[in-house]
């Protein structure tokens, strides 16, 4: 157990000053934890995941990379990247993407993305197991407040994908087709996740490639 885990309980939103959160988040003891800060509360989660979470995470990342490649959509993805708006927000989603004109917005050498200097990602994804209720609740509100254009919640247990498009005024609506990656049907990704439970990931990706090219 790390010193950070001794100091605070994990997977719980706790009242905290910004400086207190930053000191904990930047402590080397938190290197294997994901950190969030929203509305003067902090939350830390284990970065280490179970096999189911890891396999779903892999399929999602591979699928989006394949789709963008075949459709020639400029895209750069970040796995477990930290985003910080000083004094107000920090989040560390499972996956996030800069797409189109924003694809090269973040320069090499960036450790924590400063949202006062760089734009928010076009797409943020949380792989939910067992964090589903929080991903649907506080994190969704945070991403809406930050005006992140698109947010997905991938439920590991049901293979369901809840996706939301966020408007400029911060309101959101459910979508079944990605707006950030035009033409991408989320039901197809759901089918890929279901197939991956019965076959190898390489077989699933071969099937998905055929669907994307049809």
TrEMBL record:
CDD domains cross-referenced by the UniProt entry: DUF820-like
Domain Putative restriction endonuclease: 46-189
A UniProt-annotated Pfam family: Uma2
Superkingdom of origin: Bacteria
Cross-referenced SUPFAM superfamilies: Restriction endonuclease-like
PANTHER family: SLL0198 PROTEIN-RELATED, SLL1222 PROTEIN
Name listed for the protein in its UniProt record: Uma2 family endonuclease
Species this chain originates from: Vasconcelosia minhoensis LEGE 07310
């Amino acid at each position: 157990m790390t010193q950070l885990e001794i100091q605070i309980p994990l997977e719980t939103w706790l009242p905290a000053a910004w400086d207190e959160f930053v000191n904990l988040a930047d402590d080397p003891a938190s290197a294997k934890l994901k950190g969030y800060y929203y509305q003067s509360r902090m939350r830390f989660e284990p970065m280490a995941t179970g096999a189911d979470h890891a396999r779903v995470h892999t399929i999602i990342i591979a699928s989006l990379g394949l789709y963008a490649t075949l459709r020639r959509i400029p895209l750069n993805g970040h796995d477990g990247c930290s985003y910080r708006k000083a004094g107000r927000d920090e989040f560390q989603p499972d996956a996030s993407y800069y797409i189109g004109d924003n694809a090269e917005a973040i320069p090499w050498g960036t450790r924590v993305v400063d949202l006062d200097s760089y734009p928010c990602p076009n797409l943020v994804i949380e792989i939910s197991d067992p964090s589903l209720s929080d991903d649907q609740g506080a994190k969704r509100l945070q991403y809406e407040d930050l005006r992140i254009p698109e947010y997905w919640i991938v439920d590991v247990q049901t293979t369901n994908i809840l996706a939301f498009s966020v408007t400029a005024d911060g309101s959101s609506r459910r979508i079944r087709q990605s707006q950030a990656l035009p033409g991408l049907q989320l039901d197809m990704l759901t089918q890929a996740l279901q197939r991956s439970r019965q076959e190898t990931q390489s077989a699933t990706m071969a099937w998905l490639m055929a669907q994307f090219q049809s």
